[in-house]
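Researcher: I need the complex structure. Ligand is magnesium ion. Inputs:
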Amino acid sequence: MEPTPAYRTLDATAIRALIASLPTIAARLGGASAQWQVREVSDGNLNNVFLVGGPSGEVCFKQSLPHVRVDPSWKMPLDRTFFEAEWLRAIQPLTGGLTTEFLHYDPDLYVLIVESLSGHTVLRTALMQGAHWPGVAPRIGMFVAHATFGTSLLARPFEDVFTARRLFAANLALTRITLDLVLDDPYRDHPRNHWHDPALTPIVLDIRSSAATLLAVENLRRRFLSQPQALLHGDLHTGSIMSTADDTRVIDGEFAVYGPIGFDCGMFVGNLVLHYFATPDRAARQATLHDIAAFWHRFHDEFLALWISHDTPPPGTLHPLAYGPAADVARQRFMDEIMADTIGFAGVEIIRRIIGYAHTADFDTIAASHQRATCRAGALGFAYYVLEHLDQVRTMADFLRHLAEHDGT
Ligand code: SR1
Ligand code: MG
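Model: Output:
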């Protein structure tokens, strides 16, 4: 996609001018535009992000670039802020205060303006700094339950769901990134792959020569593309969450696409597992095991509660799935399917964050290089084990038991 003629990458002066032309947002900041502070806080791989603050308020300003922010040679269409805006519009009514408030979208400049969360910390950063906020994981469980149930065929007429699927099916560039970076490149030689520690190479070679693992990844790749169960966040790692102890928001929905619900669950769980292996402290590791369990159980229970309450038929009508054993079996099968996807997608997320293109900072807090290598090898070996033995890792209890057994400390 070529930039529209009106597109240009905005600097601080142009950002002030744009916001000055938007009366509601200008009023939110207060004062004169010349007084507004524009502070770049770009952190992710893809976009420019600024906080713009005035005497009475602050907003977050995000603009797509015609390339990957961290690699200008990797050209990229601009439409990702469009999909993030549409995602926000779709899920905000479902998820209450668990995301940011949508304020403005500019289709020519590919600018999205949302509520600022400058009092919050990126969850990955907070975890690396040793914060433990037990409320966060269950809040993310609530978020995923409401966002996915509410955009699925379980809650909406098929006409609405098919229309939404068509809209988000056009999010081709970022879906391609996920397909390549998460589900393809790590399993073969590719120039985008890299890993810091030669000690990991034997595990990488084992992964790539394990038929069971490659079959599992092939199945996940097919499910990612062919199971449009609900509108996904699509990139629900701990860098896509901002939090305080009491207030948690999911941000950065630019990868939104219809897909299997376990994809979002698996991204989040996979990133908690990365934190688990990056934490030398035993108590912190225990806390992370609790977080993973708390996330899953809240998601599971809330999703089922939504489903059951939605299926309660008006008096005098008969809804065949609402009564009796068929309903329970149908629900149990669906939840088991989400569980299996969660485990599989957690595995591929861990692997790609260690040997693929886009690593995470979790292990950077470990000072000694041999210790970093050991921790990364632990995480990689665990993900490999899980993918190779999916038939034995079927429940969250199985997953957590194997995780605790892979604890190399
Ligand atoms: C080129 S984009 C690389 C990664 O950054 C995003 O946050 C997604 O996780 C993507 O896979
Ligand atoms: Mg992001």
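Model: Summary of the prediction. The chain is about 50% helix and 10% strand.
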